[in-house]
Here is the input.
Amino acid sequence: MNFKNIIFILFNIHNTFSFNRLTHYNNVQMNTKIKNILYQSYKETKKYNYHSDLYGVWRRKCFNAIRAIKFMKLKEDKGLYLGWTDNQDITDKLFCLCEIHSDEFIKIHTIIENQDITDINVTLFNQDIRNISEQNQIYIDITKLKTFDKGRWYMNLLYI
Here is the structure.
C-alpha cells in the first residue's frame, strides 16, 4: 500500500468524524499513551492481592498494553491509531489500533481502555466504527479481536 492511500483513508475518517469523537494519532503519540496506560496499570496491580479479582483486571490491562506496544513496533508503517471519546469530556476513553491492508480494508487489531475511565458507551463506539465503514466503503475486520482480551471486544462489537 502506498502513502497516498493511507492519507486518503485518514482524510475520509477525519471528515466522517468532524464532530471529534475520533482522533488520529501517529505512532510516537500512541506509543506514549499506551506506555502510560501500562505504567498506571502496573502500579495498580501492586495494590491488590494476587488472587483478587481487581488484580486480574489490572494484570489483563498490562498484558493488553504490552501487546499493543508490540503491534506498534511490528506494524509501524501500516498502523492506524485512533483515540475515541463519547464527547462528554475531552479524554480519550478507548484507543483503537488498526492495520491498514488497502484503501478498502482495515483490520482492528487491539482496543485499549484508558485506565482512568470506567464508563464506556460501547454502543456509541460500535456505531462510530460502523459509520466509518459505511460512509467510506471500507471493510473493517474485527476477527482479530476474537483472540484479544478473551474475545471481549469482539463480542461487544458483534452483538451490541
